[in-house]
Each structure stands twice: as structure tokens, then as C-alpha cells.
Design a protein that fits this description.
By secondary structure, the protein is α/β, with parallel strands linked by helices. It folds into two domains: 2-106, Cobalt-precorrin-4 Transmethylase, domain 1 (3-Layer(aba) Sandwich); 111-228, Methyltransferase, Cobalt-precorrin-4 Transmethylase, Domain 2, CATH 3.30.950.10. The protein contains seven helices and ten strands. The strands form two sheets. Strands 3-2-4-1-5 form a five-stranded parallel sheet, with helices on both faces. Strands 6-7-10-8-9 form a five-stranded mixed sheet, with helices on both faces. Strand 6 (132-136), helix 5 (149-153) and strand 7 (158-162) form a beta-alpha-beta unit. The longest helix has 13 residues, at 58-70. The radius of gyration is 21 Å and the shape is globular.
């Protein structure tokens, strides 16, 4: 059996109880060494075989899984954050399907959740933004043309941008071309929930300078939108005049 486990956004106590249980019982752990907090490996059994997938190809990862399965062992594929976001798990699951190997996915806390927590921010503010776009800049790995930063920026909703801290000049140009004003609030969250977490608040117009001044070029999320400002509407759900199936409002 193979378990794809979300390690959480960085802090070791943000792995789920289910994920931690899998980790403690694993015979083999294949972890994303460039992104997963290595302190989580302290929960592994002394006799557990551990592989760093940062040094492996997809074929080598599959081989390790196949060998473990043939020996009747349990494998944990430990991904950063939640495996469903930029985890490259689909290609692994397809190969496991082809080889008749059973697997299960254990969700985790994504870094985009950790980033909001670090900033004490709410992505979906009434009257400001009710949609969140999670995306990245095109780099060595392209993105579909319909999903460019510029096209998403045209909507003016909350944006959470992964894997783009080293391209903030181009990112700024795309955000401005899509319609965000230079004064639109932005933030950079470096290694959300890790011990060395850093948050930097800026604007779209000062984004490249903020990244340069704080010497951040990787392992950071860039957040853009008016949700980082101070104006928003009160939630109607908790308004005394608003009736729900649980209580009657006192609207005159």
C-alpha cells in the first residue's frame, strides 16, 4: 500500500493526525527533500528506509514503490503542503494504477493556508473578494495561455501565486497589465509556518523592490488583492437582522 501524505506547510505539528499515523507506521518513506521539513522524519521507525525524492526521477520513485510493494511493505510518499497542489501526484497515481498497486491520499495543510494565517488575513472578504485564484507564473514549466497571470488579474479577485518569487519583475508587469493598480496591496510570505518564516507587506507597485530588499527568491508565496486592505463589509451570516435556519433575525 502507498500513502500520499500531505506534510503540511512547514511546522511539524501541522501534519494531520492521519498523516502522522501513516508516517509512524511506514516501512518506506519517500519525501520531497527540498520542501518538506526534515524534522518530520524523526517520527519514522528506526528500521524505516528513507529516500529523498529531490534526488530522484519519477521512474526511480516508482521503482522504490514497486520494490516495497513486492516485499509487502507500506510506503509513505511525503509531499509538502497538500499533495493536490503542485504535488505532481497524478503521474505517480497513474503509474501505480498501471502496476496494480493500491494507494490512498491523505490531505494536508497547504502553504496558502499557512500564508493567510501568518498575515492574519481572510482571503474571502464580503464586498471585496469572494474568489481565490491559486496559480503561478510561467517559467521553465509553461502554463496554459488562458491561465496567464494577466488574464486572472482582470478579475480583480484574491490571487495566491506560487513558485514565482524569482520572477517578480515579470509578475508585476503581468499584474499591472491585467488591471491591478500599483497601489493594490500585496504580500510576500517566505516559508509559511516554518521557524524562519518571514512576512513582507508591500504593493503591486513595490513588489520587486520588496523581494530584493528582503533577499527572497524562492520558497515564498506572493499574495495580491484588496483583501489585504482595511475596507470590507460585515458578514450577513452573523448580522442580528439576518435570519437563518438556526435563528430568526430581528429585522424591523
Amino acid at each position: 500500500m502507498v500513502y500520499f501524505v500531505g506534510a503540511g506547510s512547514g511546522a511539524t505539528d501541522l501534519i494531520t493526525i492521519r498523516g502522522l499515523k501513516c508516517l509512524k507506521q511506514a516501512d518506506v518513506i519517500i519525501y520531497a527533500g527540498s520542501l518538506v521539513n526534515p524534522a518530520l522524519l524523526e517520527y519514522a521507525r528506526d528500521d524505516c528506509s528513507i529516500y529523498n525524492s529531490a534526488e530522484m526521477t519519477l521512474e526511480q520513485v516508482l521503482q522504490a514503490m514497486q520494490e516495497a510493494e513486492a516485499a509487502g511493505l507500506t510506503t509513505v510518499r511525503l509531499h509538502s503542503g497538500d499533495p493536490c497542489l503542485y504535488g505532481a501526484i497524478r503521474e505517480q497515481m497513474d503509474l501505480l494504477d498501471e502496476n496494480g498497486i493500491s494507494y490512498e491520499v491523505v490531505p494536508g495543510v497547504s502553504s496558502f493556508c499557512g500564508a493567510a494565517a501568518a498575515l492574519r488575513a481572510e482571503y474571502t472578504l464580503p464586498g471585496v473578494s469572494q474568489s481565490v485564484v491559486i496559480t503561478r507564473m510561467a517559467g521553465r514549466t509553461p502554463v496554459p495561455k488562458r491561465e496567464s497571470i494577466r488574464s486572472f488579474a482582470e478579475h480583480g479577485c484574491t490571487m495566491v501565486i506560487f513558485l514565482s518569487a524569482g520572477m517578480t519583475g515579470d509578475l508585476q508587469s503581468e499584474l499591472l497589465a491585467g488591471g491591478f493598480a500599483p497601489e493594490t496591496p500585496a504580500a510576500i510570505v517566505y516559508k509559511a509556518t516554518w521557524p524562519d518564516e518571514k512576512t513582507v507587506r508591500c504593493t503591486v507597485g513595490t513588489l520587486p523592490q520588496a523581494v530584493e530588499q528582503n533577499e527572497i527568491d524562492r520558497t515564498a508565496l506572493i499574495l495580491v488583492g484588496k483583501f489585504l486592505g482595511y475596507q470590507y463589509d460585515r458578514s450577513r451570516l452573523y448580522d442580528p437582522s439576518f435570519s437563518t435556519s438556526f435563528r430568526r433575525g430581528n429585522k424591523p
